[in-house]
Amino acid sequence: MWEVVRTILVLSHGQAQVERGFSTSKELMDINMKQRTLVAKRAIVDYVQHIGGVEKVNINKSMIMAAACARSSYRAYLDEQVEAKKKATAKRKRESEADELDKLKTKKARLEQDVKTLEKSADKLAEKAEATHSHKLIMESNAIRRSVKKKKEEVVQLTTDIETKVKEMANL
Q1: Do 155 and 108 meet the contact criterion of CB atoms below 8 Å apart?
Q2: 7-19: per-residue pLDDT in tens?
Q3: Long-range pairs of 122-131 with CB within 8 A, sequence gap ≥ 24
Q4: Whole-number Cα distances in Å, 164 to 111, 157, 161
Q5: How far is residue 118 from each of residues 110, 129, 140, 154, measured CA to CA in Å?
Q6: Residues 6+ positions from 161 with CB-CB distance below 8 Å
Q7: Average pLDDT over residues 129-150
């Protein structure tokens, strides 16, 4: 029994190996380093430690080719990132243009509905004025017709704005 207790007491209770790993990772890290880069650096350090030092690294043709291709691979990665940002920006712009187009169409529909309602109201006032021979009702009817005319001009302007926006969206 004494042998078992003695063996247990001899075992290390420390976290030295884990702490060494943290120290190595801290030495590898740079400011704004991405996780992918840290993982690659850590793999290199682990490999060099595994084989027993930098002097024992076997430099062969495939390693030389990989080093030569690394820069072009990195450049391709950066180009992909730039392209992805451009696509995201274009998508956001298309979405905002589509939202603006929807707002214009909604506003146009609302104005057209207002025009119809006002025209009906002006017609009713004109009929009532004709029946009662009231000048006051004719004046009200004419005032409503003037506002209808302004709203129709707004509808025409909105129609041209919508057409322009559709052409702009076609070019995106």
Answers
A1: yes
A2: 877 776 666 666 6
A3: 122/148
A4: 19, 11, 5
A5: 12, 16, 11, 15
A6: 104
A7: 92
Contacts of 169 (CB under 8 A, 6+ apart): 94, 97, 98, 101
CA distance 141 to 36: 74
The first and second tokens of residue 32, run together, are 């704004």
Q: Is the pLDDT of residue 159 over 90?
A: yes
CA distance 158 to 29: 57
Which pLDDT score, from 0 to 100, does residue 31 have? 64
User: Which residue in 121, 100, 74 sits closest to 164, CA to CA?
Assistant: 100
Residues 6 or more apart whose CB falls under 8 angstroms from that of 42 comprise 24, 25, 28
> Which positions ≥6 away from 29 have C-beta within 8 Å?
38
Cα–Cα distance between 119 and 111 in angstroms, integer? 12
Residue 29 has a pLDDT of 65
Residue 164 has pLDDT above 70, yes or no: yes
Q: Which of 56, 51, 60, 49 is nearest to 17 (CA)?
A: 49
Distance CA 107, CA 154 (A): 10
Show the beta-strand stretches assigned E in the chain. Answer: none
| 101 in Cβ contact with 165 (< 8 Å) | yes
pTM over 0.85: no
